[in-house]
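Handoff note, outgoing to incoming analyst
You'll be picking up this chain. Sequence as last confirmed:
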Amino acid sequence: AVQIAKAMGADVTVFSRSNKKEAQAHALGANLLVHTDEKALSEQVRAFDTIIDTVSESHPIASIVGTLKVGGTMVLLGAIGAPFQVSAFPLLANNHKIEGSLVGGIPETKEMLEFCAKHEIIP
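Most recent structure output, in case you need it:
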């Protein structure tokens, strides 16, 4: 996914709890942001247009949402049974959107990407 996004001209940042994935992120052409590092996170306020959250276990997202640009969108793909704790005011003041999507497996994703490539569908 990182390589596809890069090919489409996107700057990609991987969010992680630690810097253990830094070499892997850089090998894919992505930056790494350790979201448990409050200083690093504060330096990325209003930095991202879109965040795609694929984590499938309960985790805090309020501080991560704060890295969205005004009008930015966070898309939740990981299925989590517990509700998220997010204040409404930052969502309203910054016109942030939190959306969810059920995604298919790898075959469906591959089919969609091939369709997009064939028809030159880009962001």
